[in-house]
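User: Okay, second chain of the day. Same drill as before: sequence in, structure tokens out.
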Amino acid sequence: MGIVSLVLSVAGIVTTLIHYVNHSIVLGIITTVMLMASLVTGLLDLKNQRLNGGVNHETVNPAVLGHGIAFVVLLLGGIICIIANIRA
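Assistant: Same drill. Structure tokens below.
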């Protein structure tokens, strides 16, 4: 499930960039759903890892990467969206 989180977060980044270019409301909703799904799947995988002996931070962990990327992009994208809608 960790690789799903990473793939969803990368797809969310791509759709975020396309959304910033054409300002499509539908694409913004799709981006938000993909990033939220990445957050949830990353958290679920981290919970499973914790229950099965602990989270491995010594190697590349796709659940940690996907969860972190999705959170940062969702947070910054939300702030940019609020600023853009206040200015307009």
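Residues 40 and 67 are 8 Å apart (CA to CA).

User: Thanks, on to the next one.
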